[in-house]
Fold this protein.
Amino acid sequence: VQLQASGGGLVQAGGSLRLSCVASGTTINTSGIGWYRQAPGKQRELVARISIGGSITYTSNVEGRFTISRDNTRNTVYLQMDSLKSEDTARYYCNTPALAMLDAWGKGTLVTVSS
């Protein structure tokens, strides 16, 4: 199973980015996918998650600003990030719950929000 995150970059505060997570070796609607992030000096945290059945949860500090969605035809999960803040600066990863528990992570994609 491989999950490739992309779409990060440098953006000004208040701006938007859309991250993509392309899965191979699994189908996203049979795994559930989470977006996680890790800021420098901090622990990795779960930002948003979409379950097999399509239920969605967000961590409180992104709710209303971030939107997770999936395109089963492209085997891709997206994270639309709006109204970005400097505290959103982090490396973002996508993962399945099983791989996250095994501490198996890809390279992620870096998001930098300038104030």
About this structure: The mean pLDDT is 95.
